[in-house]
Amino acid sequence: MDLHQLEIFLTVLELKGVTRAGEKIGLTPGAVSIQIQKLSSEVHAQLFIRDGRQLMPTPAALRLAEHARLVLKQVRHIQQDFEDDPRADQRPFHFATGVTALVYRLGRPLRRLRLQFPHCDFHVSVGPTEDGFGRSTGNRAAVRRGTIPVASLTDGSARRCDHLD
């Protein structure tokens, strides 16, 4: 059993036919039928009964559909989680900090971030923390994929850094 079979199965269930399902997902009716037969043999149950030109789901098909929807939903969550992987993000990180925090607290954590996220562009604004944050962000919190509290990198002597759009 694979995800592709589950997607085909749910499409056949929705459209009540292999021809319409095949047209929707770009497969021949024969290819759709083969996948449904394989899935049927894997779950050891008949999934559809032909009723004229339509395929009617059996109780086993309805049970399988519940599981298939949950599995595919979870797979989409996993895919989305990895699409939102900060390691793949190309937008710059802007840090606003005071001189003391930069010199004494942020050097090592920033080096670690550069190693951990080599494709990321880091910008550091130095000055009074509140002013620097305002300059970096235009006094807006344009955070989509995450705010990294500098406190998690140091002892909290610098305020925050934001991932800007």
Describe the structure.
Helix 1 (about 5-15) crosses helix 2 and helix 1 packs across helix 3 (about 30-45). Helix content is about 55%, strand content about 15%. It has six helices and six strands; from the N terminus they run αααββαβαβαββ. The protein is of the alpha+beta class and about 160 residues long. The strands form two sheets. The protein has a four-stranded mixed sheet, with helices on both faces. A two-stranded antiparallel sheet has the order 1-2. The protein is rod-shaped. The chain folds into two domains: about 5-85, Winged helix-like DNA-binding domain superfamily/Winged helix DNA-binding domain (Arc Repressor Mutant, subunit A, Orthogonal Bundle); about 90-165, no CATH class.
Summarize the structure.
The chain is α+β, with helices and mostly antiparallel strands and 165 residues long. Helix content is 53%, strand content 15%. A hairpin with a 2-residue loop joins β1 and β2.
Strand content: 5-15%
**How many strand units?**
6
Q: Categorize the overall geometry.
A: rod-shaped
Number of domains: 2
Low-confidence stretches: 132-165
Task: Pick out its properties.
about 160 residues; 2 domains; 4-stranded mixed β-sheet; 6 helices; about 55% helix; about 15% strand; disordered C terminus
